[in-house]
Amino acid sequence: MSSSLVVSTGPNCRGFTGEFTSVATREAVPKAVLRRRLLLVLFALGANMGIKRVAVTGKHGESEAVLRRVRHLFVNRTNLRAALVRLVNVTFAARDAAWWGEGTACASDSKKFGSWSSNFMTEWHQRYRGPGVMIYWHVEKKSLCVYSQLKSCSASEVAAMIEGVLRHCTDVEIDRQYTDTHGASIVGFAFAHMLGFNLLPRPKNVGSARQAGIDEGNATFETTAPAWDTFDAAKLPDHRFAALDENGAVLGWIAATKVSDRCAYTGVVEHSVYVHPATRGRGVASALLKALIESTEAAGIWTIQSGIFPENTASLAVHQRAGFRIIGTRERIGRHHDTWRDVLLIERRSPAIA
Predict the structure, then answer these.
(1) Do residues 135 and 148 lie in contact, with contact meaning Cβ atoms separated by under 8 Å?
(2) Handedness of CA 80, 82, 83, 85 (dihedral sign)
(3) 199, 189 contact by CB (below 8 A)
């Protein structure tokens, strides 16, 4: 809140305190005086100092009784929400889209805060191993919080995620919602589809599916799965998909990378697909390839290519059923565990793009 107050005193947000209307029938305090008192009260609440300490600190000349009256008459949930919405919208309006982008993506997550048992919402929860409450945040792409909720620790994060997308009340148009596995479920995907936004979970065990494939010896030249930051930086954000079970565990994933920065190859990507060995034979790889093909064709990408070890016959068969063809063999292209390995170069040329 204290950082918000700094912004609120700027010339583009003079109406910030104007959102705090009185619950009384009339108020005779001059606007400049009321504005100063409101900022002091908001600072006391936002900085967790309390009105009493703010009243005796500084040379503002306002008594504790006066500030408490302002708190009682002007500061409530409706006014706070309206003021914060105004602050967020002014921030969006001041941004240069060339630098910041349009800001149509949002991410959400929860954080547990310890609280006294006298708080009606306090719960002891196994996940947090202590009493407290849960705050669920929605933060748009460039780290501006657009919605927050106070919840009990056992509250549904899926419901909190959907509520934030629908009720944030700001000017941002959210078309993509990133969440962790606690905010993703079959129900969540269904509601996201009906409500017209894409739910994009951040599964925590993506690396385990890849490592399981690596350990079998016929998936890749790599011997260990990369760290998430390395993986995330290399893959195209609009062409990555994960298959999850009903508990949010990763069954498999697929992702694509650019093959070149040259403009002639803008429609060519290289993909990787991994399915956990325990979930093979359930159509996971086929479903992931179908999702990748649909997303790349919609983006105007005409060729998907990859390399497969000849010994990986199951992967080769799945790709051929999806329309891939072998275009050559790169003989003894690399060493894997001190052995020279061949790689089959496969590709799928989109029939939808001339």
Answers:
(1) yes
(2) positive
(3) yes
Q: Look at residue 9 in the predicted model and tell me its pLDDT.
A: 44
In angstroms, the CA 80 to CA 76 distance is 6
* Count of residues making up the chain: 354
Contact status, residue 236 vs residue 271, Cβ threshold 8 Å: no
The CATH code that applies to domain 100-202 is: 3.30.420.10
pLDDT digits (tens, 9 = 90+) for 94-132: 776 666 666 667 778 888 888 777 777 888 877 667 788
Instruction: Please name the residues in contact with 75: beta carbons below 8 A apart, sequence gap of 6 or more.
Output: 20, 38, 41, 42, 45
- Residues 187-197, mean pLDDT to the nearest whole number: 79
Domain ranges of the chain: 2-94, 100-202, 206-349
Fold of 206-349: Aminopeptidase (3.40.630)
* Residue 136 token pair: 């669920």
Per-residue model confidence (pLDDT) at position 305: 94
